[in-house]
From TrEMBL, chains A, B, C, D:
GO terms for molecular function: asparaginase activity. Substrate binds at S53, T82, D83. SUPFAM superfamilies: Glutaminase/Asparaginase. Pfam families: Asparaginase (PF00710). It comes from the Bacteria. PROSITE patterns: ASN_GLN_ASE_3. The active site is at T11. Residues 3-153 form the L-asparaginase N-terminal domain. The lineage of its organism: Bacteria, Pseudomonadati, Pseudomonadota, Gammaproteobacteria, Oceanospirillales. It comes from Marinobacterium iners DSM 11526. This is Asparaginase.
Length: 161, 161, 161, 161
């Protein structure tokens, strides 16, 4: 079984650039995380965008959707900023012939206590086992994008009423 | 949905004790990992044993099985040493009314580049979504214990022929 | 011998706050670093300011100077932002009756590959052994603030011509 | 000023080898630590031995002494196991024409909360600033090997009475 990891940017990939005294989206954190985890199934990582998810628009989401649609891979993990992950997930729900799992991190992967590795492990596992559809894996739970919001104040994803 | 994390020991929980110039099984690494991951579903962590899996015997496996059987929880993650994880998984296959996912780590969780967080994330995700049965999540893959071996030389779990 | 660690802020103490999608100066990183290092000499840590060093002014520097002057401790480490560390060091040179070592970090201490621990170890060692005066320890070198600049593009401290 | 880092082994360099279910002395941790710290002075790292310090004998110590004596470098850091660091330090005291600072770590550098980086930062700083002689930097303090012991139970170096 082949897995495709598509990286879009977001907090998970942020690095600290001292010269600019700021954080920027760096190389995909997934590369090192999957290597460290000794992942043995076939996979490839592709950096499609390097955007803060607050800066994403419908055009970006269409780009992601078209890119996936043109790919034959049926098991896809997307690492993405958390702020608009739900929006991107919803934009992909039309692709109902493959399993797509979106995840990201509340703390950059390069931080000592980041949730990045845990989240990616969950997404990789789910991409191989869930039926076709679009899902979000954050805060240790599997969400249906149709009924999910990110509660920014609480710093977690929740089922929306 | 409630998840029970049962910790048995193994490399994932190993710490380095200088006074003895050696490693020992310490407190469950799962405690910190689940907290760092911001896991928001209900869960409890129980340290049942603190054994190197090479030192486990049929008595230990019966203890684990009886303990799970007596518990009402239907979604269980077991962190365990990797050397005999398959043996313990097989000993639990009689419990066919709940989802049990075994995982561990090739490097202690307290190591900088450990696979522990990734593996635990996968196991937590799978414990909530897989149908009743016993599974192993290692090296980014989901294994059926009936047809799995740990290839020690290669340092990974593989499907046995 | 007693050491006082005075924390002023800067990159070394930066944490990532997701809700604000930004970094902020958090609790002094020195607390955890000194504990992890098993420092056994007597020391105390005091958080005097929590400022990005680009936001510091003459008033802040006077505050630091007066604070140190009022303290009886003769061996002082100051963790500080790197951008204007030289300016603060120069402002303290009038205090010529104690050993003051300034340091900081190019990457937040909470980052996996931070220089924070290394720099703090050097500063703690030097505060106990150097003669009275003001020094900077960065990039593995001991600098005299009178002839030091931070080369932002190169990301390192250098002797100025 | 040139610094030579001579690595002898010890806990600081221990890595976990799963196939052997044990820790072994790996590549010098100093290489990565000095790179991460952005050390800008001239230095070279040489792996002379890879021994647990409990396994070192007079022959090994003579080897280290002769090796240093044959080197022109006047500022030397030695990373070494902590158990017999004092013995090696004493064996080097005859070399009174250069500054030699021994350090190591109570936890392997590859551990998340290791004291390795802090200790190495202190040793690098001291190797450049202390007068000729042999010193130990551990637990945040500078020790004269003549009056130092490692208190194994307490897990720290102390001045001996």
């Amino acid at each position: 079984m082949q897995i495709k990891i598509l990286t879009i940017g977001g907090t998970i990939d942020k690095v600290y650039y001292d010269a600019l005294s700021d954080y920027h989206i760096g190389e995909p954190a997934a590369t090192e995380l999957l290597a460290q985890a000794g992942v043995s199934c076939q996979y490839s990582i592709e950096s499609l965008l390097r955007k803060d998810s607050l800066e994403m628009d419908a055009h970006d989401r269409a780009l992601i959707r078209d890119h996936i649609e043109a790919d034959t891979c049926r098991h896809i993990v997307i690492t993405h900023g958390t702020d608009t992950m739900v929006d991107t997930a919803r934009a992909l729900q039309a692709l109902n012939d493959r399993t797509i799992v979106l995840t990201g991190a509340m703390q950059p992967a390069r931080f000592r206590d980041s949730d990045a590795a845990f989240n990616l492990g969950g997404a990789v596992a789910l991409a191989q086992t869930l039926p076709a559809g679009v899902y979000i894996f954050m805060n240790g739970r599997v969400f249906n994008p149709e009924h999910t919001i990110k509660n920014r104040a609480a710093g977690q994803f929740q089922v929306s009423t």
